[in-house]
């Protein structure tokens, strides 16, 4: 099982459930999460989705061991939806999406907040966009959504540096709406989700549609740019050094790469 799904008071809680891997997304978890969002979108009894993680992590991003296999094995079996399918489900999700960041969030565990209508974060959680440390490009239209949410310079630091962002920094940047003590995180996120869920679903959908529709073409264009850059860099010298270093349990050394890398 990769997800826990529960319904209460018209709120569907989707809990990422690979705690032994800090809820890192492998193909199975990408597929399950995409399917869960699609099902919630279509369910007339669901008004709001609350997304969180089980254990110490919100999500450690893409499973790097599986990413290494994808980069080095052309016959590796991909999932039905995969990473891109999850993004499609997030872009198309018509109802309020509330995220409760309970622990560490890396990669998609951070960039998914660009699609949250409300984001809550534990005071002990941390976030990171590790793209430059992995020798790849941004993802999930974060190159567009983060400058919109955070401002250009905070977004540039987050995306270029691959450094950790604390809960307080995320709050100050505008990436999350509330910071809570760990024991208060889910009750507070649920309280707000249930308040929204008492409103007419038709109105919730209409409000979200009118807010997000102007962003759709820009998100699509950003994803196309990012995908092209990612395809160019994945499997290149910097990415292979990063993935090999991860598999070997050491820090990557980018100083010996060919010029320009």
From TrEMBL:
Keyword entries, A-Z: Isomerase, Peroxisome
Molecular function GO terms recorded: delta(3)-delta(2)-enoyl-CoA isomerase activity
Primary localization: other
Stretches that traverse the bilayer: none
Keyword Isomerase included in the entry's annotation: yes
Residue ranges that the Swiss-Prot or TrEMBL entry lists as coiled coil: none
Subcellular location field: Peroxisome
Record keyword Cytoplasm present: no
InterPro entries the record matches: ClpP/crotonase-like_dom_sf, ECH/Chromodomain_protein, Enoyl-CoA_hydra/iso
CDD domains (UniProt xref): crotonase-like
Name of protein: Enoyl-CoA hydratase/carnithine racemase
Organism per entry: Nocardioides psychrotolerans
């Amino acid at each position: 099982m990769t997800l826990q799904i529960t319904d209460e008071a018209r709120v569907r809680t989707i809990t990422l459930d690979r705690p032994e891997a800090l809820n890192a997304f492998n193909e199975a978890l990408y597929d399950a999460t995409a399917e869960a969002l699609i099902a919630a979108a279509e369910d007339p009894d669901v008004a709001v989705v609350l997304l969180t993680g089980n254990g110490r992590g919100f999500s450690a991003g893409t499973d790097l061991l599986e990413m290494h296999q994808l980069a080095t094995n052309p016959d590796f079996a991909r999932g039905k939806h995969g990473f891109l399918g999850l993004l499609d489900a997030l872009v198309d999700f018509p109802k309020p999406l509330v995220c409760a960041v309970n622990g560490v969030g890396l990669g998609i565990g951070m960039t998914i907040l660009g699609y949250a209508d409300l984001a809550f974060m534990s005071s002990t959680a941390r976030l990171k966009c590790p793209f430059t440390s992995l020798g790849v490009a941004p993802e999930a239209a974060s190159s567009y959504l983060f400058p919109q949410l955070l401002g250009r310079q905070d977004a540039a630091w987050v995306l270029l540096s691959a450094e950790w962002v604390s809960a307080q920094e995320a709050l100050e940047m505008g990436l999350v709406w509330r910071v809570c003590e760990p024991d208060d995180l889910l009750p507070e996120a649920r309280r707000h989700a249930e308040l929204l869920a008492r409103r007419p679903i038709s109105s919730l959908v209409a409000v979200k549609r009118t807010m997000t529709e102007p962003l759709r073409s820009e998100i699509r264009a950003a994803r196309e740019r990012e995908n092209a850059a990612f395809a160019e860099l994945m499997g290149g010298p910097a990415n292979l050094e990063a993935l090999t270093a991860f598999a070997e349990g050491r820090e990557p050394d980018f100083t010996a790469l060919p010029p320009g890398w």
